[in-house]
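Subject: Peroxidase structure
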Amino acid sequence: MASTIALPFALVLLSISLCVSALSLNYYDQTCPKAESVVKNIVRKAMRNDRTVPSALLRMHFHDCFIRGCDASVLLNSTTKNTAEKDGPPNISLHAFYVIDLVKKQVEALCPGVVSCADILALAARDAVSLSGGPTWNVPKGRKDGRVSIATDTRQLPAPTFNISQLQQSFSQRGLSMDDLVALSGGHTLGFSHCSSFQNRIHNFDTTNDVDPSVQPSFAASLRRVCPVHNKVKNAGATMDSSATTFDNMYYKLLVQGKSLFSSDRALLTSTRTKALVSKFASSQQEFEAAFVESMIKMSSIPGGQEVRLDCRVVN
């Protein structure tokens, strides 16, 4: 039995390692040397107008890579015959697609048909982190864009209600480890969540408790004020941590204090290994950043796609 489970996992790991080697740090050096600076300039400009852009781009990249690999399938528009990923329930709140469109338009003017939308999204996610005060890194490039995008596939995304075993399964299916899970969860240092994603922890938690007892009481009370049981405010919610536009290790510090939003955040404290990593990252931003970079490179190298789209919203 163990061998039948191990084989697909081994194949995923092999395909990721092959893809990392297939990708290249200097992929566009000859064919489109200004591509990376175009991405960075447009992300920086968009951030000046809207402080939620970095979290949006990081989440967009994560949601892309977890469905069919990092193939920009999340960018494709729905058609009369098909509802695409971006219109699947977990992706309805994704935004800042216009940033990718602006980059693509400029890059196409410089180097037609060369730079993939998947690479643009991977670079934009990197710049979103670094321009928010986080680390920077060299992004391996050479991804191809996919031709398939199906809304129902978004059911495969890890949900905010997941427990540790569900999270482990979701990540391992994509060749990612428990260490990657903890490091990539630190991306929650940026952004905002609607009430619906953590409602389960602050109302009717179980038959005994209305509120999840692991949530710090005054924090739970503040969330219940913002998100009453019959919430009528469409965009009500809370920031993911107290420094939601700065990429730092505050997420882990708050997690240890019982001030996390999602059940899936809290789940990181329910296994010995993940709990130890949470504590490590809470006490050292340097350790967190090093782990985050390593895991981001690994995740953003999950293979997928076969063409370079001319318009990120439509297949060629």
